[in-house]
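Known limitations

Files may contain more than one protein. Parsers should not assume a single record per file. Below, a two-record file is shown to illustrate correct handling: read the sequence, read the token line, then continue until end of file.
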Amino acid sequence: MKAITKTNYVKNIFFAAVLFTGASLVAQEEVEEKKALSISGTVDAYYKTNLSSSDVGAQTPGSSFANETGFALGMANLIASYEGEKTGAVADLTFGPRGDDATGGYNINQLYAYWNVSEGTKLTAGRFNTYLGYEVISPAANFNYSTSYLFSYGPFSHVGIKADFALSEDFSLMLAVMNVTDVNNNLTGEYSLGAQLGYSGQFLNLYYDGNANLGFEIDYTGGFDLSDSVFLGLNAAYQDNDGSGFFGAAIYPQLATSDSFTVGLRGEYFAESGAYGAIGTGVEDSSVFAATLTGSYTVENLTIKPELRLDNASDDAFFDNDGAASKSLSSFLIAAIYSF
């Protein structure tokens, strides 16, 4: 009897251990599955005032975003992403004035699924932010809070399918077929083609829609670490839509004075072809030089950005403090961006 009792006791321990191990493995798999889903985002707000003109009427440069005076809202950005072994999806939602300007009030900044077909090939289908330009919609991903003319008049987002190829450690290639830029619902049957060739952080970008919307744009975006604390970003673009368009270039030197503070300058020249109307002069072939000095101070997940901007156009595009027409406009803002 003692021998039988001991044998049963050992069996019970063995079965309990098996059940415990199985339960642990299931729990571990559930934790790993939960880790595949991630939530991130930003919220931002700012205060802005014009220095060379009255704040009445909220006079602002022709570039996108940060175009209100007084205390103003940027946007709330909520990003849900799921990453599987070879596939995944991203839902990127925006709420607020900055998001409305970027999406036309659609609230969906990005919404796409992807498939890593092989180690060097990735397919993405849905709505994704543009590959053209140095700047992006999210204020957390830009150094300057206000945006450039080059970014503002290029595409914001595309709806279609793209294929990314890692050709080597240094070279990459992207090819895309899309609706015309910033069009969600294709009611015309017109499409666009896109391409990007990358080499060690430098990118040559192409977009073409046969003058259906944007027309043709070629864009270079890149940057170089000149030292451990100095970075230089570069952007140049040419766009044409049946004789009307723009061209220009921008430089982005930045100096990190500490782990928490960086100061940077954006110097941009932007010129219109024909009566493009971006600068607001009402004169054909106008141009503008814009200099934006931005400081960036980070504490934990909060970034404070004071910014001084001067826009100087070739023709009268603004008004001064007396209400007289002026070629220039200066403004100051301070923005708060929280990332999570």
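...continuing to the second record:
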Amino acid sequence: MFGLIPKEEKFFQLFKQMTENTIEGALALKDMLDNFENPAASQRKIKDIEHNGDSLTHEIIQKLNKTFVTPFDREDIYALSSALDDILDLIDASAQRIIMYNAETIPHEAKSLGFIILQSCQVVDKAVAMLGKQSNEHIFEACVEINALENEADRVSREAISRLFDEEKDPIQLIKWKEIFETLEKATDKCEDAANILESVVVKNA
């Protein structure tokens, strides 16, 4: 896979650092949703992790500009780094909205979405770890798993919003939680975007 021409392998290490950092953000979000003891502190922790993600993305772009022979297409390296950065941006955006909207309790659907986000990030990490290896079959399997998790998040989000419209009497609370649910679900969309890019990379370089 990826031919015999010597290429800059540092990209694989940086992508792995990005996915590990994303898992750290997802764990912090899940802890924030599950425990909700000090949400402001949790949000600050997630923001710090997101800043670290920005630094890693910047490092990849800088290296891309300086590297002559890349392990796969430049546009795919850029797209994958952007997609991984977007996952963490949505994790951070979810935490920010919970603080901004002064959430007092966390519905069970939000906790479920937090768990799905974490699972999705872990599978993305697993797929990225296999980039550049001889066999690409497991990357395809991981991408299928990410797609299934995104479908599950979509279902949970739809049911949560439907329940809101059925049960929530305060229109302001309805608007707030609808946006939070949608933002949480978008994080899994970004995981699926990363999976689609990984599939494309494997197909191009098979």
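Parsers that stop after the first record will miss the second one. For reference, the second record is described as follows. The chain has six helices and no strands.
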